[in-house]
Amino acid sequence: MGKNNMGQMHIIAQLSAGQGLEPGGWRWPGEDKAAFMNDDIFIKGAQLAEKGKLDGFFLVDVPAISADIATTPQGSSLDPIVLMALMAKATTHIGLISTMSTSIYEPYSIARTMRSLDLVSKGRMGWNVVTTGNPHALLNYFAGTPAHGEKHGRAQEVWEAVLRLWGSWPEGALKLDVASGHFADDKLIKPINFKGEYVSSKGPINLPPSPQGMPAVFTAGGGQYGYDFAATKADAMYGNPPTLEYAKAFWQQLSSSIRQAGRNPDEFTVFNGIGVSIASSEKEALERRIALDELGDPSSRQQYLSHMLSIPITGLDIDAPIPDRLLKLARPNRQDHRSQYAYDLAMKGFTIREVLAHGPINYHPVFLGTPESIADKLQQWFEAGTGKGFNIIGDTGLSSLADFVDQVVPILQKRGLLRTEYSGSTLREHLGLPYRNGFAEFEAKAPQATIK
Q1: In this structure, are residues 99 and 59 in contact, taking their beta carbons and an 8 Å threshold?
Q2: pLDDT score for 363
Q3: How far apart are CA 311 and CA 333, in angstroms?
Q4: 394 and 265, same structural domain?
Q5: How far is the C-alpha of 122 from the C-alpha of 427, rounded, in Å?
Q6: Nearest one of 304, 293, 242, 281 to 395, comparing CA atoms
Q7: What's the confidence (pLDDT) of residue 84?
Q8: DSSP β-bridge partners for residue 178
Q9: Residue partners of 88: CB distance under 8 A and separation at least 6
Q10: Do 319 and 193 share a domain, yes or no?
Q11: What is the pLDDT of residue 244?
Q12: What pLDDT is stored for residue 6 in this prediction?
């Protein structure tokens, strides 16, 4: 592909539990087998993302042990808030995005923690707003799990209370006048007296705004609730579309919701999750992924592929294509939108092992091949209209992120698809967002909560 004429894409890198997309990535030669508890790995990851002039570095938070802890550390991680503080001091420009769940944390805890990090990083923080559906995580904090409606109702209230808290100390209230002894204008710093059905906070917050005002607000999720929440309450959204066509439809529907909320879709970015496996040829990339599958649990992946294709394939020769007698009965499972891709791969005659290696059962689609071909696919998605952004996840860990930054990023930069230098210093500036501090700018567009 040639030069781009559509502006530049936004890219965030992700390194959760110190590793990449594949459960067996921690066993890959050269990776730190204890990366999940090594803060230096995360600091180096953020520095790599900054080296590539990416927009941000993202850490998820799963505060519960995973069911497959016997074979993978993917559910084990250091508290991302601790890591964010360390990364903020070791970098100067890269945006830093962390999850803090509305189901677990109280508004003041989120507001104060995120504002502290935003000040420490000089305006580079992003808050990923999510609800927690993992019952094990919820039971680590509470005696029971909330009903579906309560979870969403609480999320709305926490979001609003956090933004009101951020706005309770407005720009200009901090004076720092040594001569007069005037530290701050207390007439401008006011309580919020927020009282909702699920959460309350008196306020005000005890810290001033950062150079970007408040952290950029991210969210993740699908369905109409996810669209509406993103359209009215977020600056950016994480997506996990399995195919290009799905990604285009996702962005079209979200754009419509954003317009209906009275906002401009051009000021919003969807970061589509993309796994990458980089090698000197597509054949070598596929072999790399096959080797990674062997380091994980291929039998469980084969079982799930059986579920996706609606046919029994466990026990079949994994190094042979699915027999025609079964393939004729195969149907994509409508309950899993990744199933169509798995079905298409099976119909092309790939062996079961090769089908799995292409990544149809991964949470994100996988781009495998040479640096040039991966750059081509990213450009294709970008120019097709999928929301302008990507959340890149390597297949193993730090080494695969380094491969992306060192081999794919220069190609994208040469094509004019990525910046070669930062033009701003805050995350909001990286994303093309204006300075913002508080709830006021959303008031005309968001449902009102109870303020007493």
Answers
A1: yes
A2: 84
A3: 10
A4: yes
A5: 10
A6: 293
A7: 98
A8: none
A9: 96, 117, 120, 121, 124
A10: no
A11: 94
A12: 63
Q: How far apart are the first and last CA of the chain?
A: 58
Q: Kindly state whether residues 132 and 154 are assigned to the same domain.
A: yes
Encoded tokens for 92: 């100067």
By three-state DSSP, how is residue 375 classified? Answer: helix
d(CA 211, CA 159): 21
**On the CB side of 370, how many CA atoms lie within 13 Å of its CA?**
6
Q: Is 148 annotated as a binding residue?
A: yes
Domain that holds residue 421: 10-277+370-442
451 located within any domain: no
Question: What CATH number does the domain containing 427 carry?
Answer: 3.20.20.30
The residue from 327, 357, 387 where one domain ends is: 357
Chain position carrying tokens 């796994």: 275
Cβ–Cβ < 8 Å for 425, 122: yes
Q: Please check whether residue 362 lies inside any domain of the structure.
A: no
Strand partners, 11: 390
61 is in an annotated binding site: yes
Tell me 434's DSSP state: P
Q: Quick one: 161 and 249 in the same domain?
A: yes
Listed as ranges, residues in the chain with pLDDT below 50 are: 4, 444-452
Residue 436 domain-assigned (yes or no): yes
Q: Return the pLDDT at 68.
A: 84
Statement to judge: residues 57 and 158 lie in one domain: yes
Query: In terms of pTM, does the model score above 0.90?
Result: yes
Residue 246 CA, distance from chain mean position: 18
The domain boundary, picked from 357, 389, 409, lies at 357
Model pLDDT, residue 149: 76
Please report the pLDDT score of residue 227 as a whole number. 86
Residue type, 215: P
Q: How many CB atoms lie within 10 A of CB 301?
A: 21
Instruction: DSSP letter for 61, please.
Output: -
Tell me the HSE value of 67 on the side-chain side, using a 13 A CA sphere: 4
Environment class of residue 393 by beta-carbon count within 10 Å: exposed (0-12), middle (13-18) or buried (19+)?
A: buried
> How many domains does the chain contain in total?
2
Q: Are residues 233 and 260 in the same domain?
A: yes
* Residue 51 within a domain: yes
Residues 169 and 293 in one domain: no
Tokens 């990544």 correspond to: 359
pLDDT of residue 3: 54
Instruction: Please state, in angstroms and rounded to a whole number, the distance separating the CA atoms of residues 321 and 340.
Output: 17
Report CA-CA distances (Å) from 199 to 153, 156, 384, 449.
10, 10, 42, 11
d(CA 259, CA 231): 8
User: 239 and 163 share a domain?
Assistant: yes
3-state secondary structure of 290: helix
Return the sign of the alpha-carbon dihedral for residues 321, 322, 324, 325: positive
